[in-house]
Amino acid sequence: MITSIPTPTETTEESIAYTTLYNGAELYRTMTQEVFRKENRVLDRAKTALDDLHTSGESVNPAFSSLIKGYEKLLRQSHRLVTMGDRMQQNLSELNRELGVSEEKYRGIFENVTEGIYRCGSDGRLIEVNPAMATMFGFKDSAQFLSAIPTLQALFCNEEDYARYESLLVVESVRQFEVKVCGPKGLSLWAEISASAMHEEGNGRHAHLRSGVVGVLADVTERKHMVEEMCRLARTDSLTGLWNRRYFMEVAGREIARASRNKTQMSLLILDADYFKCVNDNYGHDIGDKALVVMSRLLLDSVRDVDAVGRYGGEEFVVLLPDASRKAACYVAERILKNIRRTKIEHGKGAFSMTVSIGLASLEEEETLDGLLKYADIALYAAKKNGRDRVEIYSRSECPCSVDEEGSEASACAGREQ
């Protein structure tokens, strides 16, 4: 008699469900092996009975023989299917294990990395942020962050920056996009964003639609300030804070090229502190440095914001006056002379005043920066030679302009063509 595979009882089903949570694959293999052993015993008994009938010479129903052969074939095929199922179960278990490991790694990175990580939906709303991003903007945890800032766009200080970010996402992934972002209570910081869009899987018209965005946001405020400070130090004189000679020459070169291109006026002043060696000898180099700092402040106070002031070297300074005629430059030079002359520089035992000599040259057609500096230096030498505390003008005309103490135009020339 052929026995069929017994239907599992309710208790057996509960046991399988419970054990599967911990060792389901092993239990499954054990049960299937037991079932096949029982079925093989049944098949062996049926074959033995058939052989006994043949041996005794009794007639055998052909249907019985056919049934045994069919059951044997069915048992072989069932065994193959179970073996295939076992392999699939093993592969699935391995995939689940690897998925668990990957999830654990992702969570470890997500929770502990110092950079902010965010995930947005297709509508731009923030779905998830890590603790580092919440802390970056002054929140206690991720939930508090998401409650206060629902979208990534809300972090951008400038709408144009967000539009640029979105356009990069459409064309390609965003890589090291530096932007200023704003948080609550006036918080702002410089951030570097890298992000990529996720798209719908499958075919059809929704296959390429964006399903979300995953990105990393790093706080680069300190680095930004360091770079800016390095640039400032590379451009400025460490004592006076004015442009150093190298950067002044760079700025002046650009301005002269612009003036020549636009056919606009421009003038240049070179200043030198009178008898500055005596200041160092009589009061010390620390007081001499103080005097240079005071002179630098007076120079900045005497010119416009668009004018460029630099320390040319030692006690020499240069002032570039864009869009300034020779006459306008004369007024600026006289104002500088007056402001420096009436300023007292204090030291331990009192105070002293200083004067400067100034050489002025104005840009003419096809003039170069080197030529302008050369002519202003010649005029400065003339100012030193003619008594100091004065301005001399290098001019190709017979009589360059001059201004008197009150700032009105003088009738006689204070300088002569050099």
UniProtKB/TrEMBL annotation:
Its EC number is 2.7.7.65. One of its GO terms (molecular function) is diguanylate cyclase activity. GO terms for cellular component: plasma membrane. Residues 175-232 form the PAC domain. It catalyses: 2 GTP = 3',3'-c-di-GMP + 2 diphosphate. Residues 102-139 form the PAS domain. GO terms for biological process: cell adhesion involved in single-species biofilm formation; negative regulation of bacterial-type flagellum-dependent cell motility. InterPro entries: Diguanylate_Cyclase (IPR050469), GGDEF_dom (IPR000160), Nucleotide_cyclase (IPR029787), PAS (IPR000014), PAS-assoc_C (IPR000700), PAS-like_dom_sf (IPR035965), Rev_trsase/Diguanyl_cyclase (IPR043128). Residues 264-396 form the GGDEF domain. PANTHER family: DIGUANYLATE CYCLASE DGCM-RELATED, REGULATORY COMPONENTS OF SENSORY TRANSDUCTION SYSTEM. NCBIfam families: GGDEF, sensory_box. This is diguanylate cyclase.
